[in-house]
Design goal:
This is ATP-binding protein. It comes from Xanthobacter tagetidis. The N and C termini lie far apart (about 70 Å). It is built from 15 helices and 20 strands. Strands 5-4-3-6-2-1-7-8 form an 8-stranded mixed β-sheet. A 7-stranded mixed β-sheet has the order 14-15-16-17-20-19-18, sandwiched between helices. It has a 5-stranded mixed β-sheet with strand order 9-10-13-11-12. It folds into 3 domains: about 160 residues, Histidine kinase-like ATPase, C-terminal domain (Heat Shock Protein 90, 2-Layer Sandwich); about 110 residues, no CATH class; about 190 residues, Trna Endonuclease, Chain: A, domain 1 (3-Layer(aba) Sandwich). The protein is about 40% helix and about 25% strand. α10 packs across α15 and α12 crosses α13. By secondary structure, the protein is of the alpha+beta class.
């Protein structure tokens, strides 16, 4: 017999590595092929000390697979010593699956109780039949494979692992049930993760909602539709080779009415699976196909998507229509600027991110076409330009609504910090519309830029900050924005000072003084400034309100809480007006929401007209 360097074979064969999912699938599949009806998979996790002394068990340490199949009979032991065995050819076996154990762990131990004897051995790359220990012993058939000393210590999510195993083996267990062979798999674990410590996946409970087949280029593909109730969600096709899932095709991740799993099997997929059944080696495009693999991924996946969606719609559960209605509602709220009709007949079936992706691609194409037309000197419709601009404005209005809703949901104690970050995130220059939200203060500042986006102004602000901190022993917590005059010089300035909610009347009054002093310093160094708006974002209790009214502050209309303002003249040269507003964070958010609601209502009105 020709010898084989097993260590090198494993290294070359499993270049992509092996996961717990691969190992368990291989072990359980072998158990089923050995005639087992009851299989258990125990996941043992390493106990570690958490940051605060708590018991943490995230790292998988050992896997034990046990079954009541025929076990390691004399024939099976002889096959175990052979690579690429042929005794499972009729059921798709490649004869190399067990090598995954050696790739995954340093220690693999086998204990097999036969009717009249006990077989034990440690499986290694150098294994020979001479390593097997045989002891006379009577008992019920029971085989245990213990996989320990794992080569990689990684965090493992039990729920995700077990659910993946159920998806991989669902079709195999269902087909076994059809032939009268009920297989149950019991999963146990000690991870303390939020997943049942005892979970049973039984072929007796699996029902296919529908079975059908389709023909593609002379190849027959058989499909089985399974449905899981919420909270499981999504639509996924499980591409199976020899009745075991090899690859997943996500059709919808966001479908949240229930979960549909469609197992697809075919002799074409059997031939396309690689040696370890870890992936399908199918040509990507039609130009890559050959005489053996004559169907490309592009063609096959498109057909599978269409077949699955068509069957789900016809299944009679109404899940697709419910999801469409829900998705349209989400579109109205989050993407009212998108014309659903322009995206094709089934736009409501797309995931939200897919809808936006399609929409943005359309917008980009429209914009490119307009630019090319202008460059070529061709006629460009003003309506086309106007529509592009209105769509961008609509996107901005929806962006504003999302920012406001996020702030409104914040606890009041956290509102000030959240508002600060929303107006101008730390380490941001404020150029990005998603970062500069000074419109939260007032829409008249919509076109203002962050002062940090100008190198010269930024240097001045930093100098003023250092001087202010030196004089007042406090670093100002200020965001600053500006506009330019016709000659490009800064001419109007917005200063926003934030004060913690816990501040007393003295600290609050200090913030008003700091606003005036800070503004004075800036306009003395930026000589072109002609007007300053300052906002002190502080809580206004009765005592502070009364004190401000006594010093000349006047009331400003607000939908929620008290807001006051006063006018000053500042600057060493004199004559520069300062409009100082004192406003609670909650009031800023409520008033911004009210201003934006007008635009939202117009958009939603348009969406109602366009929605299917």
């Amino acid at each position: 017999m020709a010898r084989i360097n097993l260590k090198k074979f494993i290294a070359e064969h499993y270049k992509g590595g092996v996961t717990a999912r691969d190992v368990i699938r291989e072990g359980v599949t072998n158990s089923i092929q050995a005639g087992a009806r009851n299989i258990s998979v125990d996941l043992s996790f390493d106990r570690q000390m958490g940051l605060f002394g708590e018991d943490v068990r995230n790292v998988l340490d050992k896997i034990v697979i046990e079954d009541d199949g025929e076990g390691f009979t004399e024939d099976n032991l002889n096959y175990f010593d052979e690579i690429c065995t042929g005794h499972k050819d009729d059921i798709g076996g490649k004869g190399v699956g067990r090598l995954a154990f050696l790739k995954y762990a340093h220690r693999v131990e086998v204990r097999s109780q036969l009717v009249n004897g006990l077989v034990e051995f440690r499986y290694t790359p150098d294994f020979t039949p001479a390593d097997v220990r045989k002891t006379p012993s009577n008992g019920l058939p029971r085989t245990t494979i213990t996989i320990s000393e794992l080569k990689e210590k990684i965090n493992t999510q039990v729920a995700k692992l077990v659910n993946s195993m159920c998806d991989d083996l669902r079709l195999l267990l269902f087909l076994k049930k059809q032939s009268g062979h009920i297989v149950s798999i019991k999963f146990t674990h000690n991870s303390q993760q939020p997943f049942s410590e005892y979970f049973v996946f039984s072929g007796g409970d699996i029902e296919a909602k529908k079975t059908w087949n389709f023909d593609l280029d002379g190849e027959i593909f058989e499909c089985y539709l399974f449905r899981d109730d919420a909270p499981r969600k999504g639509i996924v096709a499980m591409l199976c080779a020899d009745e075991v899932c090899v690859e997943e095709l996500q059709i919808s991740r966001r479908f949240d009415i229930c979960r549909y799993t469609i197992s697809v099997t075919s002799s074409y997929l059997d031939r396309a699976s690689n040696l370890g059944r870890k992936q399908l080696e199918i040509p990507k495009t039609d130009s890559d196909v050959d005489m053996i693999l004559k169907i490309s991924r592009d063609s096959l996946f498109l057909r599978i998507r269409n077949e699955c969606m068509s069957v789900i719609k016809e299944s009679g559960y109404g899940d697709i229509e419910s999801f469409k209605a829900s998705n349209i509602d989400k579109l109205k709220k989050h993407y009212p600027f998108i014309d659903v009709k322009s995206l094709g007949g089934d736009a409501a079936m797309l995931d939200a991110d897919e809808i936006v992706k399609v929409y943005r691609a359309q917008q980009a194409r429209r914009e490119d076409q307009l630019v090319e037309a202008m460059e070529d000197g061709r006629y460009v419709s003003f309506d086309d330009v106007s529509h592009l601009a209105s769509d961008d404005l609509a996107r901005f209005i929806v962006h504003r609504a999302l920012v406001i809703d996020s702030l409104a949901k914040m606890p009041r104690d956290a509102a000030e910090d959240a508002l600060h970050n929303a107006i101008l995130r730390k380490h941001s220059d404020g150029n990005d519309i998603r970062e500069n939200n000074v419109w939260l203060v007032d829409d008249k500042f919509l076109s203002y830029s962050s002062i940090y986006s100008d190198e010269t102004l930024a240097k001045i602000v930093r100098e003023v900050g250092v001087d202010t901190e030196s004089k007042q022993r406090r670093k100002p917590d200020v965001a600053a924005f500006y506009s330019r005059d016709n000659e490009g010089n800064p001419n109007k300035l917005v200063i926003i000072e934030f004060k913690k909610k816990s501040a007393d009347i003295f600290e609050n009054n200090k913030s008003l003084v700091q606003c005036r002093l800070y503004a004075n310093e800036l306009i003395d160094r930026i000589r072109t400034i002609r007007e300053v708006f300052a906002f002190a974002v502080v809580e206004i209790d009765d005592e502070f309100y009364r004190d401000m009214k006594n010093t000349g502050f006047k009331d400003v209309f607000s939908l929620s809480e008290r807001v006051v303002y006063n006018d000053f003249v500042i600057g060493s040269r004199g004559g520069v007006p300062l409009h100082l507003y004192v406003v609670p964070a909650a009031s800023l958010i409520v008033d911004a929401k009210a201003r934006n609601r007008v635009f939202e209502e117009v958009l939603r009105f348009n969406m109602d007209e366009k929605a299917p």
